[in-house]
Amino acid sequence: MTVYRIGVLYGDGIGxxxxxxxxxxxxxxxxxxGGVEFDWVKLPMGWEGIEKHGDPIPQVTxxxxxxxxxxxxxPHDSAAYPAQHQTNRNPSGELRHVFDLYxxxxxxxxxxxxxxxxxxxxLVIVRENTEGYYCDRNMVIGVGxxxxxxxxxxxxxxxxxxxxxxxxxxxxxxxxxxxxxxxxVHKANVIKLGTGxxxxxxxxxxxxxxxxxxxxxxxxAMTAHLVRRAYFFDVIVTENMFGDILSDLAxxxxxxxxxxxxxxxxxxxxxxxxxxxxxxxxxxKNIANPVxxxxxxxxxxxxxxxxxxxxxxxxVARTMENGIFQALAEGAKxxxxxxxxxxxxxxxxxxxxxxx
Length: 356
Ligand code: NAD
Description:
The protein is α/β, with parallel strands linked by helices. The chain is built from eleven helices and twelve strands.
């Protein structure tokens, strides 16, 4: 039997609650589907990393993650870390940088039993994850911001042909497996060189995929289009910060930010991570929605299945996904979805559906 080594980083705020719930549901799915075993490698991150190693993303965690097949990343409350940690990349930024996880895939899809505010939608945001306006990602040393005087700061956005080409290929290849439509989101009417290059290179790559229809929108107009006609979009490709913002909006439009999954990948490594943060306002209350991280983990299973050509992982993924969708469709819902289930009650409801 193949054993997959999976890193588990519980993180801060609601992180431990939703990560524990996710591991429980994944184990139930693996037991049900059979044939796959997971070796969990628990590693410090966030406040646990600061307390044990003086670093929210300690070297030991990075070293051990290199030996895993992939990992689950709980959210971090990086905005609350002490001042000495504010000058470094936050834990997810650091892992994306160290492992060159250049592709951040963030789907938003309406689900049975969940109230969408935009009707039917089934779209995927393909976010460039290594440069753009998240300036700390652009540097080998430093964070890409310079304080010239106490009242003057320069923050650098970076756009390179190489990074745009590879994310554009990710988007067009994905569109070929879906409805064959790519929307490029930029702001080339104002940031003419930077996002202009992003638009130009995406369009050039698109010429290699003649079956895929291409259009583009400015980021500001795009937020309105998304609310007005979410059903219209298939694959959306955009730079780092626009993608982060747009995907929170898309997640909330189809039900809740708490439902929004994501996976961060390079050619040979993957990190499952919900789109949302550590939600300090509801941490420790057992009311967080664990679906975002659960569905991120389903995406990790599909990625692993493809990379290791292991169909048994697809069975585990579908078992887990069906359990989540059935629980939602049959009314098990956390408070953000208008329900009354606690995190543990919802998790139990999913485990029961999986066992059926
Ligand atoms: P947030 O995503 O944590 O919370 C925004 C709102 O959504 C809050 O009202 C919260 O209660 C709600 N929410 C989020 N996830 C939910 C869930 N699973 N279930 C129910 N409700 C949920 O954003 P924020 O408040 O801007 O940031 C809080 C902290 O998280 C900050 O320190 C920030 O830096 C960090 N953060 C981390 C990540 C990450 O780990 N990848 C991403 C974004 C923000």
